[in-house]
Amino acid sequence: MSTKTPSEEDILRPINTLTKKYIIMYAAAALGLVAFLVAWAYQLEKGLIVTGLGDWGTGGGSTWGLYIGAFIWWVGVAHGGIILSAAVRLLGMDRYMPVARIAEMTTIGGLSAAGFYILVHMGRPDRMVTSVIGHYHITVNNSPLVWDVTVITAYFVLSATYLGLTLRYDISRLRDQLPSFAPKIGGVQLPDLYGIVYNVMTIGYTEKEDEVIERMVWWLAAAVIIMAPLLLHGGVIPWLFSLLPAMPAWTGGIQGPMFLSIALMSAISGVMIISYSFRRAYDWDHIITDDIFRGLLLWLGFFILLFLWFQLQFVLNGVFLGPLDKAHAAEEKIASPLYQIAIGMIFATLVYIFLQAIRPALFSKKRALLASAAVLVGTLTEKVLFVVEGFMDPHFNIYAATPGTYFPGAIEWLSLVGTGGLVALLFLNLSKLVPVVELHAIEHLRGDHDHDHEHTDATEPEVEA
Fold first, then answer.
1. Going by CATH, does the domain composed of 8-444 fall within 1.20.1630.10?
2. pLDDT in tens, 33-81
3. Is this model's pTM higher than 0.85 or not?
4. Is 464 exposed, middle or buried (0-12, 13-18, 19+ CB in 10 A)?
């Protein structure tokens, strides 16, 4: 256990330092995003035919594929992230305070990537204006796509407000230690650009508002927890699939709970990987401790157990004397090698978590990261297969003679690289602007550290001279 006392200097280290590793990571993330933007420009010029998506008709194939599967996955990462942060505040889980803001930023990044996928999959971005926004009063009542846009926008505003309120406390107290940048252009002194951002974020701030903000954040956290079963991965996204009567592979009330379990699995895994990256880069062993990783692993195991149970319920109800079309869809799904690999990876992670809980010596941060990566890959694979298999096995398969196949094209694979780069850039930029660990977390850890030292001093036996 580290004996270092957490300090403000620790959480400001990412802002006040610039390393070669940071520059390399920034360049790699930017390159990934630019590569996808170039590929997307090519898609806009030639049409969606350049992807692996097929015409759901005589040509066979699937009109939804990796784009929609990745969209669902990113929404899950985002939804689970804000739930994790809200649970820390609402349920008093102070143990996880150092990673609460990372979870909030993960939500912002995940929602940005998910919204980007909507634009990409529409084929023509102008349809967002002509078809969605321009006729919103009509489409909101009938279009699942508009439901997605609506709840993603609402959650983005909610999450940004949540993050912005908590940042006011930190910035107001750390302002003297935060950077400034006032360049000269042509002999003209420009204003401090950092200062402008910080002044906007803390406009009208007084210490009297701290108690009010605490109550506001608590109610926002309560709203997130209450809405979790109803919106995004608990409601609207699974309803987009489960309420379509023509697709037996998608129907069933189990989809909502299953999607929500995937959201929490993916978010916890993502938060662990990002937290470890910051811990290693900025020597935060005494802030993001091994104890946090152990706890997150146990929560990950719990949600994996729920997910596998939901999968069993869905598959068993399909293959055991179910309606023929539903049985066929379920059989096709479980026969897929990719599905078997995805579920195998997730199950292997559960076995590891169970074993390390029984025998703590099996725990290591690297194993925890491998487990997190396995869950992220497994959940993404399962979601893409969920989307594709639903198209391949409808109730009325009038194109049975040419069912077609689907495999993501190069542009679709680049979309994963690009959205991953987008989220990475968000973290890299925010880490240079605001603390990614809350000041409240440092104050809490410092209080615990002082208490431990007092307890040690009090119980230490006196030594005679």
1. yes
2. 999 999 999 999 999 889 988 776 556 678 889 999 999 999 999 999 9
3. yes
4. exposed
